[in-house]
Design goal:
- This protein has 294 residues and is α/β, with parallel strands linked by helices.
- It has 2 domains: 200 residues, no CATH class; 55 residues, no CATH class.
- It contains 13 helices and 6 strands.
- The protein starts with 9 loop residues before the first helix and ends with a helix.
Length: 294
Amino acid sequence: MSELLDPTNDYVFKRLFAEAPDLVVDLINDLRPDLPDIASVEIMNPNIEPTELTGKYIILDVLARDSDGHCYNVEVQVRRYGAWHKRGLFYLARTLGSQLSAGEDYQELRASVGLHLLDFELFTETAAEREQAVWRFEMRDERQPDVTLGNILQMNLIELNKADRLGLPEGPLRAWITFFKHWQEELTMAKVAHEPVKRAMSRIRELSADEETRRLAFVRERALRDEVSLLNDAKREGRHEGVEGTLRKQIPLKFGELPDWADARLAAATDAQLDDWVMRIMEADSLESLLGKH
């Protein structure tokens, strides 16, 4: 038996759910159990273009619409980047705005609901944040949160790692968390009785047995790793330039005009050297003693 594909790989996630609308229905109902169940959905973006597998900053999502016209953007995200929430809000608002044609009644607007499964911890600053893994954001008044503009624009976030660590109460949501975090653990998954999750496991096994699907999942995983590497390189480069720029401002203030040899030393310095010079500049009695002129 081939090793099972990871359902948090967004290519695998989209294949898993976009090709099985009944699973999308179950997932939506289980992730938002306080709202009326839906019976069926139409997948509005069923295809995956070849360019999407290697495209930068692309997330393969599932866009679905139920029989009442409500729209759902369902996706999994494995990497955190600075503007991820702005992207989510932008697409959610665009989905809402695209519902009406010119002259149509605003009463016809239906909900646009974002369901985002995050494979990283997002809210960690306070103890209360660290103890909550399921979040819902709607249009509410700041001082009187019971006063709302309705839930037609709604973003739901589930932090998978945190939810798994905290141990949610037994039920459908916990079963899905177990699936996304422990799909490769046969004994753990054998204990899950929730039928939709059992069907999702069957789908994962089918997808994992297909060589072309495995190849494309690898292509997608490689593209995501390359993207992360590029982002990290950019961060390191930005930090390097920032520290070097700080020294180029500090040195003239203390030692006078920057000589050519010092300019060359700064330009060729490593991150560790720059960090050391920033720490020692205040106590250095000469530019030579700071930079070590040869």
